[in-house]
Write a structure and sequence with these properties.
247 residues; alpha/beta; four-stranded antiparallel sheet
Length: 247
């Protein structure tokens, strides 16, 4: 088991954002996390990635507790945060080298890893540019390369196609499908069609709780669409393919 969430609970002041969430993700699974605005998706992913601590519960990554054994756990994670930003003073290649070294890759291993992810995400034209001058789509690809730099067994991706054009989105979906065969992948997205195309299992979070955990095929209608089930479960209103989320 590569991802284990056990009774994860998180409050911000008097607001309880996540309320006792538990689930597991095996190697080879691509799990989509869906929810309406403020449901708790990003908060859940941040607890699993170790960027915020739960008030209760624990998160295990490849068998290591993200709070009590953070170094081991974080080296097993490739994390793409929502609206990834920062490191604007670095060139893309420098940013990736920094990420590789932070994951314990040195010398030739670091250099090879940087070349591999630049090729994987077609970042050659941007490698010598500062992050500050990149468009949103190019910057998103650089941050995704940063998450993949050490070939981690666990991928936690918050809105991975944000800022990408349609062709880039299709290419990224193919890439993630290809590289996820032996990885556990957790993907938060507000695009239901993206979850349909990429994920083999769906978690629906509403008001900080998991209200559905099922194979994508079980949630889909006769046309392969999960929107009707999502709207029925969450009461999200009129049919839509996008569900914004800020939590």
């Amino acid at each position: 088991m590569l991802i284990e969430a056990e009774n994860l609970t998180k409050s911000f002041g008097t607001t309880q954002a996540v309320k006792g969430i538990s689930f597991k993700v095996n190697a080879g699974e691509r799990v989509g996390v869906l929810g309406v605005n403020g449901a708790g998706k990003s908060t859940t992913l941040r607890m699993l990635a170790g960027t915020i601590a739960p008030n209760q519960g624990r998160a295990l990554i490849a068998g290591s507790d993200i709070q009590t054994a953070p170094l081991q756990a974080r080296r097993a994670i490739g994390y793409l945060p929502e609206a990834a930003n920062g490191f604007s003073e670095l060139r893309v290649a420098e940013f990736l080298a920094f990420g590789a070294e932070a994951r314990g890759l040195k010398g030739a291993r670091r250099n090879n890893a940087v070349r591999n992810v630049i090729d994987m995400l077609n970042l050659g034209d941007a490698a010598a540019k500062h992050l500050s001058v990149l468009s949103k789509g190019w910057r998103q690809r650089a941050w995704l390369a940063h998450a993949l730099i050490h070939d981690p067994p666990v991928l936690i991706l918050d809105e991975p196609t944000d800022g990408l054009d349609p062709i880039q989105k299709i290419a990224l979906r193919r890439l993630l499908a290809d590289i996820s065969r032996d990885k556990a992948m957790l993907i938060s997205t507000h695009i239901l069609e993206e979850a349909e195309a990429l994920c083999d299992r769906i978690l629906v979070i509403d008001s900080g709780r998991i209200i559905a955990d099922a194979p994508t095929a079980e949630l889909a209608d006769e046309h392969g669409r999960i929107a009707p089930a999502f709207l029925r479960l969450t009461g999200a209103g009129e049919s839509t393919s996008q569900v914004k989320e800020n939590a």
